Amino acid sequence: MKNRTTVERKSERELVVTRTFDGPTRIVFEAWTRPELFRQWWVPKSMGMLLRSCEMDVRVGGGYRLVFGQDAATAMAFFGKYLEVIPNARLVWTNEESDDAAVTTVTFEEKGGKTLLVLRELYPSKQALDAAGTGAADAMPEQFEQLDELLVTLGASAGRS
C-alpha cells in the first residue's frame, strides 16, 4: 500500500502534515538537510518550476535560502534560520520571507525501519495562516511522493556500498 500524506489544520494558527516514509530516519533526515538531496525532491514537478538555488547551513543559528522560478525575472526567495537541529530527530526553522511567516518544526521518528515524519507550521495569527492559504499544503503530497522516489534510489545505492 502506498504511503499517504495527511494535512490537517490543528488550530487557528497551526497546520500539521504527517507521512510515513519507507526508510530509516538517518536517510530521511539527510534528504532534508543535504542540499544535493533536498533539491531533488522539494519542488513539485507539476509546478514546472526550478529550484534555482539551494543554500543550507544546517546548524543552530545557521541559515537557508531557497530560490524558485522559471527564470531570474520570476524568481522567489524563501529564507530563514535554523533554531533547533537534533540529528535524525528534529529540525526547527524560521520562515523569514514575510512578516506573517510560520515557524516550521519537522520531527523524524523511526518505527520498524520506516520513518514517521510530522511537519508542523505555526503561524503568528489565524489571519497569517488564512493568508498563507493551502498552496504549500496542497503541494506537500506531491513533494513527499518525490521524496519517496528519492529514498528508493538512496536505499538502493546504500545497499551496494
Overview of this protein structure:
This protein is α+β, with helices and mostly antiparallel strands and 161 residues long. It has a domain at 6-44 and 88-160: START domain (Alpha-D-Glucose-1,6-Bisphosphate, Chain A, domain 4), CATH 3.30.530. The chain is 29% helix and 37% strand. The chain contains four helices and eight strands. Strands 1-2-8-7-6-5-4-3 form an eight-stranded antiparallel β-sheet. Strand 3 and strand 4 (63-69) form a beta hairpin. It is globular and about 40 Å long.
Please describe the topology of this protein.
Elements: E1 6-9, E2 14-21, H1 25-33, H2 35-38, E3 50-56, E4 63-69, E5 76-86, E6 90-94, E7 103-111, E8 114-122, H3 126-132, H4 135-160
Antiparallel strand pairs: 1-2, 2-8, 3-4, 4-5, 5-6, 6-7, 7-8
Give a quick rundown of the structure.
The chain is an alpha+beta fold. The protein is 29% helix and 37% strand. The protein is globular.
Question: What would you call the shape?
Answer: globular
Query: Main sheet, how many strands, which sense, barrel?
Result: 8 strands, antiparallel
What's the architecture of one domain in CATH terms? 2-Layer Sandwich
Number of H- or I-type helical stretches: 4
CATH class of one domain: Alpha Beta
Quaternary organization: single chain
Proportion of residues in β-strands: 35-45%
Quote the distance from N terminus to C terminus.
28 Å
Query: Measured on Cα atoms, how large is the radius of gyration?
Result: 15 Å
**Total DSSP E strands:** 8
Sequence stretches where pLDDT stays below 50 over 5 or more residues: none
